[in-house]
């Protein structure tokens, strides 16, 4: 019974070869047939709502799998179900048909779905455009070209119109607007900030998440550089150069098992996180050291392989759930329909490559050894990434969403994000159990009735390449300055957090470490235990939790009277495990003119993929304690 309900329809697929990847894609496409409308234009996968209409949501279910389908067909593959999409193109764009998608309006969700459709025509015209009759082509051109005179959000969305025009151009359509496409590209290039990185918007936007890489901007730049290298050679070469520089940073967001570090919004797109690596291959980019085609192949396929084996990512029929490692509506944005997760199909772009491409002929290589046990400051996203001590995570300051997004404080404002432990989102606005306050300093001015966490970070910077420093202001008379110090060679499983609080009101604080799977081997909840076995330990100034997922702990390095408690967070708050516990330090703080200092050590070591808990010897590492850098000791002593 051990594997009952803990498997996926794809568990037997090793996802190692081009044929394996194609089989995985077909396994995702096949179940959509029973959810597809009679006319083929709509895919209905569930009843949860979005801020946009149901027709757009069902168009989303239709269009997003096309990222994979078009790549498969472009690479010479076949798929019998392609007829469903051909019928959908004809009927969805026909104003007289009952399944008509509707004409586009300003800032319409339909614009997003045009990106996959434009890509499909651009790379697989013979299979996805040519079979349509003249009337259907006319309707299709009119519908797709209908976005050229509409207002679009000043974000990565502009790439979707570029892709629509690429498709129209490849089809030889009079609705292709070369002037509009060039204007969009010129404006998108103003988002570029150097070293390969682009903001997801104009100056003042400080989001540099997966939209700046695999979800949208870098992916789009690479595809454009391949498709338009003859028509726009200078821009295409610039995009390839950006990708080379970006790859040197982006590799630090992945661990040896292939997992990406969860950070930011839209994480229900799952293995779209790794589609940048496939796009590098699609664009034939000359790789920067230490990357080779074998390394890139490993980065891409290990990530896809990981997701092929996550039971909670799929319903029993093989369709994708909304969530991350399991169905989870708490983490979603109001633009996540049941079809949204199929954005992951971008990661099938390597199927467009011939078998002779070096991506496919190279032997898959492990994560580069030269990048193991490193600490890397990334100045544009204001992250410090590390995999020192066998744990891949990032420290973060300085990002926030530029518009209202559900749970944005959790998605951008936490102090650390981990590939193994993920992050948590609030499921309510009351108790600490509801808060899911992992890797954050939560403050309350109403005796714990409600809590505020860092959301709007100010004055953030990386100092001397050594640590992050930032400010945030939860109330008008409260300011918090935070230093985040990465691991030290003498204590590699720890990182330090130092907070200076100035407050004009009485506060309670709750500082959380990494949330961790909270069950025993028999599936029951962890119980108090002080030894090496699975369980929780709470005491004065330190607490920890040990389970099959590893160990997580937190310590008051300079005693400030904080008590440790291992909080059982509400179910479905953590993105990776649905039942989690959270080592937390709790205290009260009086108002006054003097600064309050909190110095926290955070310890974490995940299981090494075997589900047997932290490796032997972790208690010796636990007894080591990180040292506060002398420069920061001086600041504390001065104040």
Automatic annotation (TrEMBL):
Cross-referenced InterPro entries:
DUF2264_C, DUF2264_N, UCP014753
Q: Where is the DUF2264 domain?
A: 17-367, 374-632
Q: What is this protein called?
A: DUF2264 domain-containing protein
Organism of origin: Crepidotus variabilis
């Amino acid at each position: 019974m051990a594997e009952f309900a803990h498997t996926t329809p794809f568990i037997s697929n090793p996802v190692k070869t081009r044929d394996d990847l194609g089989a995985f894609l077909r396994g995702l496409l096949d179940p959509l047939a029973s959810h597809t409308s009679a006319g083929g234009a709509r895919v209905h996968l569930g009843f949860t709502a979005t801020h946009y209409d149901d027709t757009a949501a069902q168009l989303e279910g239709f269009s997003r799998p096309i990222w994979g389908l078009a790549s498969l067909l472009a690479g010479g593959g076949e798929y019998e179900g392609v007829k469903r999409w051909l019928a959908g193109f004809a009927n969805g764009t026909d104003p007289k048909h009952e399944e008509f998608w509707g004409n586009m309006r300003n800032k319409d969700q339909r614009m997003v779905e045009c990106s996959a459709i434009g890509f499909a025509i651009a790379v697989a015209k013979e299979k996805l455009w040519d079979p349509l009759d003249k009337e259907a082509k006319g309707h299709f051109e009119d519908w797709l070209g209908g976005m050229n005179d509409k207002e679009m959000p000043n974000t990565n969305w502009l790439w979707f119109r570029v892709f629509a025009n690429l498709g129209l151009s490849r089809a030889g359509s009079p609705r292709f607007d070369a002037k509009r496409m060039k204007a969009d590209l010129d404006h998108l290039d103003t988002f570029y900030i150097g070293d390969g990185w682009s903001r997801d918007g104009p100056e003042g936007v400080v989001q540099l998440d997966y939209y700046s890489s695999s979800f949208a901007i870098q992916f789009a730049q690479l595809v454009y550089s391949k498709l338009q290298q003859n028509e726009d050679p200078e821009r295409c070469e610039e995009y390839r150069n950006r990708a080379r520089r970006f790859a040197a940073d982006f590799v630090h967001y992945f661990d040896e098992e292939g997992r990406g570090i969860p950070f930011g919004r839209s994480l229900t797109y799952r293995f779209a996180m790794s589609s940048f690596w496939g796009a590098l291959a699609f664009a034939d980019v000359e790789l920067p050291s230490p990357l080779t085609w074998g390394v890139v192949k490993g980065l891409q396929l290990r990530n896809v392989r990981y997701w092929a084996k996550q039971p909670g990512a799929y319903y029993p029929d093989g369709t994708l759930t909304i969530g991350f490692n399991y169905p989870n509506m708490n983490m979603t944005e109001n633009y996540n329909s049941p079809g949204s997760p199929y954005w992951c199909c971008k990661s099938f772009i390597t199927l467009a490559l011939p078998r002779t491409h070096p991506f496919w002929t190279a032997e898959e290589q492990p994560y580069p050894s030269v990048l193991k046990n490193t600490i890397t400051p990334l100045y544009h996203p204001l992250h410090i990434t590390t995999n020192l001590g066998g744990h891949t995570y990032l420290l973060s300051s300085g990002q926030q969403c530029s518009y209202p997004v559900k749970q944005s404080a959790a998605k951008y404002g936490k102090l650390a994000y981990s590939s193994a432990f993920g992050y948590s989102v609030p499921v309510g606005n009351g108790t600490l159990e509801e808060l899911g306050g992992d890797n954050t300093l939560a403050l309350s001015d109403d005796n714990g009735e409600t809590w505020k966490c860092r959301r709007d970070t100010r004055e953030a910077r990386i100092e001397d390449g050594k640590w992050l420093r930032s400010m945030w202001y939860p109330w008008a008379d409260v300011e918090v300055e935070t230093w985040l110090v990465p691991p030290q060679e003498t204590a590699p499983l720890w990182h330090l957090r130092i907070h200076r609080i100035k407050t004009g009101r009485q506060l309670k604080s709750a500082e959380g470490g990494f949330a961790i799977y909270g069950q025993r081997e028999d599936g029951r909840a962890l119980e108090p235990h002080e030894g090496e076995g699975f369980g929780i330990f709470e005491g004065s100034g330190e607490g920890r939790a040990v389970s099959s997922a590893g160990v997580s702990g937190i310590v008051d390095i300079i005693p400030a009277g904080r008590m440790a408690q291992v909080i059982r967070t509400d179910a479905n708050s953590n993105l990776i495990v649905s039942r989690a516990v959270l080592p937390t330090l709790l205290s009260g703080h009086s108002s006054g003119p003097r600064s309050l200092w909190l110095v926290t050590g955070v310890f974490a070591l995940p299981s090494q993929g075997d589900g047997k808990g932290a490796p032997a010897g972790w208690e010796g590492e636990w007894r080591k304690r990180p040292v506060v850098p002398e420069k920061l000791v001086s600041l504390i002593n001065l104040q």
